[in-house]
Design goal:
Helix content: 55-70%
Radius of gyration: 20 Å
Structural class: mainly alpha
Number of domains: 1
Order of helices and strands: HHHHHHHHHHH
Number of strands: 0
Length: 256
């Protein structure tokens, strides 16, 4: 108990939110794989896919905080174990490699050494997305991912002849949509201003209200604030965004 009380308020909040995301992901996975989705209305299926996509993205965001060691900074070993767990559940991603790549992204932002950046404007969004995904996909990771889906399909089909459809709608499609969500709101839109012809020095933040920023990508769109203060957890970014906007607004007055 004394160890828990020594955790900071942001750490306790982050662990609570991470637990809710993880439990929501697990409960929705088990629940949606156990029913016959082929007999459900289209709106129910759509809600299931959207909900699973958000939870899938939430897993990565928790892993992202772990990569910055702000998920559980007071217990670095457990921080990394939790990060490895959620990234494995997200897409069988190797935690150490992801952390190394993300450190390079922050250290060498918008350069040839940035694994998340595509400097060629001619590549377009799709070309950038292909490069982005190629940096995270390996043969071993794909084998683990496909193997887990095959196992889930066998289990689902044991109870339901169309269980393969459940796996497609509950696992495969949400992961694909989540990767697009993370790329668009967490990489492409914030960092495209650093490509020609704009060539800004810093990434940009998306001008979204907090509720929409949350739905868009768990505040990953407040990207300049994240790069300026990477030690902040994802749920602390809206407050930092408000502070940065207030500082920008007060700048000209202060000079005057």
């Amino acid at each position: 108990m004394s160890g828990i009380t020594r955790l900071s308020n942001p750490t306790r909040t982050g662990l609570l939110l991470a637990t809710l995301i993880l439990l929501g992901w697990l409960v929705s996975l088990i629940g949606l794989l156990s029913i016959d989705l082929s007999r459900r209305p289209g709106l129910v299926i759509l809600a299931a896919v959207v909900g699973r996509t958000l939870l899938q993205t939430g897993l990565f965001i928790v892993g992202h905080d772990a990569m910055h060691r702000v998920l559980l900074p007071e217990r670095v070993g457990w921080n990394d174990r939790l990060g490895a767990l959620v990234l494995a559940l997200y897409a069988a991603l190797p935690y150490r490699q992801c952390r190394h790549n993300h450190q390079r992204h922050h250290r060498f932002q918008a350069t040839a050494r940035d694994p998340d950046f595509c400097s060629d404007p001619g590549a377009g969004a799709l070309g950038w997305y292909r490069q982005f995904m190629a940096g995270y996909l390996t043969a071993g990771q794909m084998a683990r991912l496909l193997g887990s889906w095959a196992l889930l399909t066998l289990v689902a089909c044991h109870h339901n002849p169309t269980g393969w459809l459940n796996v497609l709608l509950v696992c495969t499609l949400p992961l694909l949509l989540s990767s697009l969500q993370l790329f668009v709101f967490g990489t492409y839109l914030p960092h495209r201003v650093q490509r020609a012809p704009l060539l800004r020095a810093k990434s940009d933040s998306l001008d979204l209200p907090p509720w929409l920023s949350l739905l868009a990508c768990f505040h990953f769109g407040y990207h300049r604030e994240h790069h300026d203060r990477p030690a902040l957890a994802w749920f602390q970014l809206p407050a930092e965004r408000r502070r940065s906007l207030q500082a920008q607004a007060a700048g000209p007055l202060a000079v005057a």
